[in-house]
Amino acid sequence: MSAGVPQGSVLGPLLWNIAFDFVLRLEQEEGCRTVCYADDTLIVSTSSGAFDAVLRANIMAARVVRRIRGLGLSIAAQKTEAVYFYGKGKEPRVMPTVYVDNAYVTTTTSMKYLDVMIDSRWSFQDHFRYIETKTSKVSRALFRLMPNLRCPHEGKRKLYANVLTSVITYAAPVWSDVLSSAFLRTLQPIIKLQKSVAIRVVSAYRTLSFDIATLLARMPPWVLQVSLRCRVYGGLTDLRTRGEWTKEAVAEIKTQERTIMNRQWSARLNRPGAPGTLTRDAIMPHFSDWLGRNFGSISFRLTQLITEHGCFGHYLYRMRKRDSPACLHCTCLSLNDTVEHTIF
Q1: What is the per-residue pLDDT across 15-44, written as a single tens digit (0 to 9) for each?
Q2: Phi, psi at 119, each rounded to 5°
Q3: Which of 228, 270, 283, 290 lies at 20 to 30 Å from 242 by C-alpha?
């Protein structure tokens, strides 16, 4: 073949890498670097001033475009994005313009690269808003597949929930450093979303707390899962750097980091004043066994027994759905209709 991209073959990605390596071997302008992933090409231009940075970017862009055309390919200038990074208090009055393939591209304060929103200050606020919007759309579609009173069972529900977990934690090592207390307000909608997902997994009432919903669903908080992925990424990077990468070493790192995450999660659940005393007292002494169980399934009825959130007089009275917490099936109506009363 004389031009184009090979597709439809297992050799396609390899042939593409061989061909596009021609672009990466290009002489780099001072302060510039070219990064390629699949068919995305990123040019990074650095300088102490905006004028020099734009000038270097224009020179490097012209070289890259020339090389890409030499492969028989073309550049979609209308899809090209440019972002200008600046320090605190150095926001320009007029955003610079970059010249790419006979078209002017005005720099902006954020851009999407490999499905990650990168902003000028590396705060990732735009990325958090982006994943909030994205997960909201996905969750609405998944919730229609997870009604409380009908199938699917817990296993399939967890599979659906893992779709959202993958969306939330995507590229976590890139943006995890900004997860300080100042940014937790931004994550509140995402935390609320995980609670809704966990409630759907275990077919629970909406009044269930975040801690108990995630505990029953065996879904560690997404914030902890983000930290887990970052630590695993750092450990695997160290293995490659030392030349000690093996399947066994990778598995050991993942096991160790997951153990650390479970300990952190357990400490959160056992903090003073945590909600769901009844459920925690039943599960926390067997926390590891609960997370690792491969039998049984949580259902709508079983969740009510474990949480006491359901068709019990005590709960309905607390929710102001009934005038009395008494059991309607007992001759002595003074009895409090709780889980213990129903079972024992």
Answers
A1: 778 888 888 888 888 999 999 887 788 999
A2: -110, 170
A3: 228
